[in-house]
What we know:
28% of the residues lie in helices and 21% in strands. It is α/β, with parallel strands linked by helices and 433 residues long. The protein has a single domain (18-234, 329-428), classed as Alpha/Beta hydrolase fold, catalytic domain (Rossmann fold), CATH 3.40.50.
Amino acid sequence: MAxxxxxxxxxxxxxxxxxxxxxxxxxLPGFKGPLPFHxxxxxxxxxxxxxxxxxxxFIQSEKNPKEDPLILWHNxxxxxxxxxGLAFEIGPLKFVTSKYDGRLPSLVYNxxxxxxxxxxxxxxxxxGTGFSFSRNPKGYVVDDTITSKQTYEFLRxxxxxHPQFISNHLYxxxxxxxxxxxxxxxxxxxxxIEDGDYPLMNLKGYLVGNPRTxxxxxxxxxxxxxxxxxxxxxxxxxxxxxxxxxxxxxxxxPKDYPQRKQAFGGRHLQEKHSKILPPQEVFPDLKCRTYxxxxxxxxxxxxxxxxxxxxxxxxxxxWVRCNYSLAYTQxxxxxxxxxxxxxxxxxxxxxxxxxxxxxIPFMGTQAWIRSLNxxxxxxxxxxxxxxxxxxxxxxxxxxxxxATVKNAGHTAPEYQPKNCLIMFDNWIxxxxx
Length: 433
């Protein structure tokens, strides 16, 4: 006997989520008053079979949204939430660094956000990152190729629902492991343009910070860097060392996340926030640069935060800043060929490196750039902010620019927000660093 159509409706709604659902956010828990920028959050369905939905944050440019470029930002990991980009790197929010006392951490405005001059989409990708989820467990098994295809599908569907941004200059961007995915996604966009895919995107280029490539030089350069920075002696040159690799000047700090089972105890999604204090031994010191990471767990896992962001109930049990337990396979052995293909086609590229990063040292990045065999158009020189050296840069043929950011670590905008905003603004507006 056939089932009534009405009885099938809930099943159909569950198995076939809408392509995109979105909401405008005017207030956030922990932030005093209305937000001084336009924030949108939402989901985009990118795999109807498994029910994969990628969560995103979108901030309109604070200058001229209609004409300013559109940036799709991908964080590292793989598995680091887009909220890291929003609150620690290029977004308009940042935490007040004060000792956690059980109350909801406070947020303030970041005056050096890239959203001052650009529209920015930050996406929780790959699935299982941040608030992105799959309705079928098989959907969580992904790799570089699947993730790139899903990101491209995300962008395509997002633009269909936001047609006012289709003509804006488009740039694909990201750092760390995200820097490996960026050129792959950008290539898919470029191929889609050549094939006439709808919507026809206005891709102008891409930018990556301290990017992974998959090449051995990413990590082999660590010893060379440590030796050059006088961290290891000549005698220890060939010996691996234990250091804080993201920023070599950081003090030694404990982990930047609470002992979650003890800290939250399943109470973090209660309807009203009450003081939740983890055991004293899990507290990092306030002097640690990563202390705001610690605060982010208590903010993002609060019931009121989930409600404000319109996170779908029952989809993500507990938010983690970086989910390193993903069923993820790195099947793109090297992204260098993608860099070559894009730049040979004339797309603009900015590759920047925090010069105190030993996770992906600038020496390794320079090595793979040299392997492209591009001629040098503007040789090594300093670039400046407020009359001070902010880093060094070199411009190559085929619209490729390399820049270092002085006294910056693995995620450069986190360490030098003002200088990185100026670097980004100069480059994105076709100026000179």
